């Protein structure tokens, strides 16, 4: 079972950058729900993901970590997506704040940040940091 | 009144990158507390800050926003600092998760992400995104 929701408010006058962030989030969190193996198309051989403090370098290590997640169901509710240019060609900085609920656990806040780089017609993830918003771990 | 605390656990074998992140956070959040006007040394003419969804481009706009914050006291408690290399020379990606308490308000979670770039002996902030972890704003 899977659900993905971007909460209002939607920007009244969305910019191209915010549209890109929204489209990326839609794609990424849908794939986490229903096709995690296909996320390998989003990571590159030199991508870096830090997941709850554990650093994974390279597509293979990132995918091994993502595939090892054991939940049966996940629901995402995205509260905000902040996008910025980086001053580098085709490189975008993106911070996502939201809540997620896995299986029978209560909902928890999370924060995930990406640096995306364009290549031909698509983007891949250069950097990815994920944290649940928990202060007593 | 001001307080700044980095919570344990401290990494058992801190890397150079994590030491840099920790030193940056120590400097940044101390200055937010006791010398906000000096933060202008950390922002560049082309820095971008998105503060609770409001984008400020350039040092002047960023500093105007930071100086306009109206709290009298602020206490920070930093839960985690995740640092990554970006593949670009002297450029570091940093995500900070913590709690803050202003004046008589209850503590709230926050997330702040930076891209830092080295220049001579110091770093400046290229990108900065700040969000309180609130889902019903």
UniProtKB/TrEMBL annotation, chains A, B:
One of its GO terms (molecular function) is nuclear import signal receptor activity. It comes from the Eukaryota. Its main location: cytoplasm. Residues 20-132 form the NTF2 domain. It comes from Ciona intestinalis (Transparent sea squirt). One of its GO terms (biological process) is mRNA transport. Keywords: Cytoplasm, Nucleus, Protein transport, Transport. InterPro entries: NTF2, NTF2-like_dom_sf, NTF2_dom, Nuclear_transport_factor_2_euk. This is NTF2-related export protein. One of its GO terms (cellular component) is nuclear pore central transport channel. Pfam families: NTF2. It is found in: Cytoplasm; Nucleus. Has a role in nuclear-cytoplasmic transport of proteins and mRNAs.
């Amino acid at each position: 079972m899977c659900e993905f929701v971007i909460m209002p408010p939607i920007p009244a006058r969305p910019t191209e950058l915010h549209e890109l962030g929204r489209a990326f989030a839609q794609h990424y969190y849908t794939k986490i729900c229903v096709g995690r193996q296909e996320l390998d198309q989003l990571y590159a051989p030199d991508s870096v993901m830090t997941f709850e403090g554990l650093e994974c370098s390279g597509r293979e290590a990132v995918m091994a970590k993502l595939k090892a997640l054991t939940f049966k169901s996940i629901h995402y509710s995205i509260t905000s997506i902040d996008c910025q240019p980086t001053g580098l060609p085709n490189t975008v900085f993106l911070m996502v704040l939201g809540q997620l609920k896995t299986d029978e656990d209560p909902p928890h806040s999370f924060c995930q940040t990406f640096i995306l780089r364009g290549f031909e017609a698509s983007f891949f993830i250069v950097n990815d940091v994920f944290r649940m918003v928990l202060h007593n771990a």
